[in-house]
Design brief:
The protein has 10 helices and 15 strands. The strands form 3 sheets. The chain has an 11-stranded mixed sheet with strand order 14-13-12-11-10-9-6-5-4-3-15, covered by helices on one side. Helix 4 packs across helix 5, helix 6 packs parallel to helix 8 and helix 9 packs parallel to helix 10. It comes from Thermus tengchongensis. One of its GO terms (biological process) is tRNA methylation.
Length: about 350
Amino acid sequence: MRPILELLPEELPGEGYRRAQIAHWLYARGALDFAEMTDLPKGMREALSKEWRISEFALVEAYPSRDGSVKYLFTLLDGKKTEAVYMPYPNRKTVCLSSMVGCPAGCTFCATGALGFGRNLTAAEILAQILAIAHHQGISPREIRNVVLMGMGEPLLNLGNVLKAIRTMLHPKGLAMSPRRITLSTVGIPKGIYRLAEEDLGVRLALSLHAPDDETRRKIIPTAQRYPVAEILEAVRHYYAKTKRRVTFEYTLLKGLNDHPWQARLLAKLLKGLSAHVNLIPFNPWEGAPVVGTPKAGILAFAEELKRLGVPTSIRWSRGRDVGAACGQLALKTPTSLTFTPLLEDAGR
């Protein structure tokens, strides 16, 4: 059976208003079974079930955190696994999505990188994360208004499928999201940044910089051997010039490695003239990590130095640490507390 989530709303099976009905059931009602689409003729529902599938998962496991966030572990139809995180806030519902099984970037502070690269996710598998989370939470997929592509994987190394998924997120008959509420995070693949700028979808860009100098960055991010900071920032400046979208710079503070005052000053110098915001991220520990985080006092001092130099800065205290759902912790681990939602035996529904 073919994955129906690979299709844009105007490409869905049927004629005219039937396509609109199917899109409404998928993206507004969150149907995971064609039998639910009761305003379609019975024969059409049966035909759809024979040719198409909605779900991309054999199993969905949910691990609730004490802070209200939920880590989801998805078993794909080929048996491989990936993860996403649901983060409810008083005024919005956010999901952190994966674009790959594992990740080839290999960042030293990130548990996902330690897994290595499995494979790219399809556009359907990316979108299916939203639908599965909404189903488990008992909400419409369109109630999820914020998406961050910061889970497993490097989105710019799977850009074709990521862009395809984003187009359905933005489509008025799809998830009808605002581009300002979709953020794509990258370790810095210049070619991908240039392409993202040319696509001009209006989404936000976040750069995982983590060090302002090449020597330090190479110790943290293996891909930095190929892409120096200057080359990445040239691409980011092009992105800003083309889109006029402020760029977020993510910076995980690691004790004795990238948390020195001179590095804060160099970072401020690099960002001069660029509409940028720095997110300082405390290191979230994981078993076997080769690095340790900067203590809270050091994080606050680094933030104050950036602010003194005129750089808009915030500290992103992560959610979901107790279930391995925080930034840098996604590693297909299964905490002790578990609820799970197995899908129907008929994977075509």
